[in-house]
Amino acid sequence: MSPRGSILLPALLLACAAPALAQKPQAKAPAVAREQVGNRTSENIPAIPPELVERLSRYQNTRGATFAGWSDDCLLISTRFAETAQAHRVCAPMGMREQLTFYPEPLAAIEAAPARSTLDGFVFGKDIGGNEFWQLHWFDLKSRETTLLTDGKARNQGPLFSHDGKQFAWSSTARNGKDTDVWVMDFAARKPRVLVTEGGQWNAMDFSPDGRELLVMKYVSAAESYPGVVDLASGKLTMFPVDGGKASLKEFRYSPDGRGVYYLSDEPIDGKPQEFLTLRHHDPKTGRFEVLTGSTPWDVADLALSDDGKRLAYTTNEDGIYKLHVLSLPSHREVKLPQLPVGVVVNLGFSPDGDRLAVTLNSATSPSDVYVIDLDSSKIARWTQSEVGGLDASKFVAPKLVHYPTFDSVDGKPRRIPAFYYRPANVPAGRKIPVVINIHGGPEGQSLPLFNPTAQFLANELGVAMLLPNVRGSEGYGKTYLSLDNAEKREDSVKDIGALLDWIARQPELDASRVGVYGGSYGGYMVLASLMHYSDRIKAGVDIVGISHFGTFLKNTESYRRDLRRAEYGDERDPAMAKVFDTISPLNHADRIASRLFVAQGKNDPRVPYTEAEQIVKAVRANGQPVWYLLYDDEGHGFKKKTNVDYFNAATMLFWEQALLGK
């Protein structure tokens, strides 16, 4: 089975009733210098100096490759050679990459046909302009023809073949535009039927080996999901009990004999609460239950089973470092593996014969590439070597994992927040280093020690350090830590940024007078909230597709997402929660944002509507601040097209040069 689902014309302004701003005398808003170039609108952004563009160019021409599935003895990979990431095929270690798809929009998911089927090809997802209303298509490798599988309108995701390739399942909002149901089709007949219509967000997880049943999962939040099984003939849904009543469960897979299931869960064990996701096996017929990673105090992050039923692969996320493991089945004995470079290992997939395992490996000093491990000989072969823009990779800086104390305590000691610290090399003695704090989104995300060309440019070209904190609410550090920023505790994560500012001030090599903040999505909210609370300690911030008011965000986000976000942020229809939103939202306190601000947004964003950006830009400009604003009509929740990304990155570096370095 291959790994699944990996990241327009101008519309009228969405109607939204913005909460009243703080009633203080307003400065005269400065004049706005606007430039319209194609799909890009930029306001107050100066012309990018050619010298900066040239210096940045090599960093922007780094690229990675990710494993997407097996096709006989070849690998399907996703990589970018032009504007967007497309499907390619590689048939030998370090072999030529044959590009298969050529679209202006990036592919969102690639699902290869199973080896046991008569099919030769793959299913891929693609949207328009970043709107995330993905349509699924079949690409036939023999004819090189592409066929649309979905309705062309709804949001479709999670493509999944049965083990013989005769059936196909996916998730779609086609029924009512709000709920994400599970659909199936006989792949030869191409006649879809809706299978699960219980409401909420449902995903297909795995077909039984005999093709008679389908494991499904209802996702409520990062801490709550519910598994079940559907009889494909009758459509009967049977839910599995969740120990403790509420837990996070992921990656349900049938065992090769079809009798039991392997899965990841943080349910209680023998009545004892569990902090981390562990790998488990359960045989409902015999009642046998086994925890396979009980001695590992970290989350299991991924799971894959070989088609021949002989092996299982999984990864553990240990303080941001991923470690790969393979077990023999059914004994569950560890298989000896070669030494892998330290980094993040994702996209696991066994070869059709089960003797090899393909993975995507990303390290702090090397972009994502695909490796294949021969499990019998315990040897590893590199199948792709992605470009680093002609740069000297030996000069890339690797981050150091640090932990800093924050405002509250655990067991009588200050709680410590993990962060990855990219420090410039060869800093002259006595020179203090400016800092950019990069805050992840989610909020259940996690910053990892990945290859980061922006961090490398800041370190090697501008002499700026980058810190990536995993503030409370980040995943990977246990169930309790994940819940510490929920609902009315939202600003506690902002206090963790305040504690990081304190830590920076205590470091003799860092310049606490030159600190910037940067983040996207929920990280964009964190940027705005940090500026709201700490403008006297932060010189500048870059907010990408960020939330400026939780009430207006929840009102205007796409309907299929609203209940999912209420589970994390709180329900704006509750007067008490609405009051909290009014208190913590940066829009209502824009008069306190005195730092330089750069806001970037995609017009087609279905998650954080572009009105969130427009209203905070208008409010901060009312302070007399000349805010930079960038809007792309052909992007959504983040930027995917190289030309757009390149301009945004260049503008960001110019912003740091002016606002942080005083150039």
TrEMBL record:
Keyword Transmembrane helix attached: no
Entries under InterPro entries matching the protein: 6-blade_b-propeller_TolB-like (IPR011042), AB_hydrolase_fold (IPR029058), Peptidase_S9_cat (IPR001375), WD40 (IPR011659)
Signal peptide: 1-22
One protein family per Pfam: Peptidase_S9
Secreted in keyword set: no
PROSITE patterns, alphabetized: PROKAR_LIPOPROTEIN
Keywords (A to Z) from UniProt: Hydrolase, Protease, Serine protease, Signal
Limits of the Peptidase S9 prolyl oligopeptidase catalytic domain: 454-660
PANTHER family for the chain: DIPEPTIDYL PEPTIDASE FAMILY MEMBER 6 (PTHR42776:SF27), SERINE PEPTIDASE S9 FAMILY MEMBER (PTHR42776)
Name the UniProt record assigns to this protein: Prolyl oligopeptidase family serine peptidase
Organism of origin: Lysobacter auxotrophicus
